[in-house]
Amino acid sequence: WISWFLSSKGNEYFCEVDEDYILDRFNLTGLNSDVSNYSQALELITDNLDDEIQDELRGALDVQARLLYGLIHARWIVTARGLAKMLEKFKRVDFGRCPRVLCQSQPLLPVGLTDTPYEKSVKLYCGRCEDIYSPKSSRHGSIDGAYFGTSFPHLLFLVYPNLIPPKSGSPDLSFGSRSTDAEKLISTASVAMKADRYRPRIYGFQLNETAKLQRWQEAIRDR
């Protein structure tokens, strides 16, 4: 079932959750209260569902299995192994690039605005401008944000500080070589720099009200 789910169009943001993680009931604590027909949905995910029951309830169980896998996925991707799998997808730019011109095609990461299912769809977080965007594809835009959670992208940058993008200049999109400790320190320190901003001008002069507003915004962000 998992292979079928991951290969379905619109599910490209998801990574494969290790089966041993799913089979450890401790990792699924509390999910039975969020998913109807929890036991059967879990059996469907792990390919242990009885064929006769599968024929009778296939449609309804598929919906619940998607919900259950999504909630398990949100927990999995903040583990060490889950972060490593999502890191590979980030390196392949599976989640797209920031549409903001001054971010210079910075790769994005999926994030939820809430950890509660059926409330908000998934958004894409840019570590360079620290803003969020809606996915371009309507298929991706309909994915529940709770399947990625509110912590994932920030935890990824915390665990892999060498991936924190600089706030100005050209981002390093190669992900090629391992960074030294000194390079990691420089990269981590660069987050203190102000992000490049577009500044409206007329005949070379910045607009007064816009300039005051931007100075206030930057002071608040710095603080």
UniProtKB/TrEMBL annotation:
GO-annotated molecular function: protein kinase regulator activity
InterPro entries hit by this protein: Casein_kin_II_reg-sub_N (IPR016149), Casein_kinase_II_beta-like (IPR035991), Casein_kinase_II_reg-sub (IPR000704)
UniProt-listed Gene3D superfamilies: 2.20.25.20, protein kinase ck2 holoenzyme, chain C, domain 1 (1.10.1820.10)
Record-linked SMART domains: CK_II_beta
Coiled coil: none
Pfam families found in the cross-reference section: CK_II_beta
Highest taxon listed in the record's lineage: Eukaryota
GO biological process terms, semicolon-separated: regulation of transcription by RNA polymerase III
GO cellular component, one term: cytoplasm
Family indicated by similarity: Belongs to the casein kinase 2 subunit beta family.
PANTHER family the record matches: CASEIN KINASE II SUBUNIT BETA
Subunit (UniProt): Tetramer of two alpha and two beta subunits.
Known role: Regulatory subunit of casein kinase II/CK2. As part of the kinase complex regulates the basal catalytic activity of the alpha subunit a constitutively active serine/threonine-protein kinase that phosphorylates a large number of substrates containing acidic residues C-terminal to the phosphorylated serine or threonine.
Protein name: Casein kinase II subunit beta
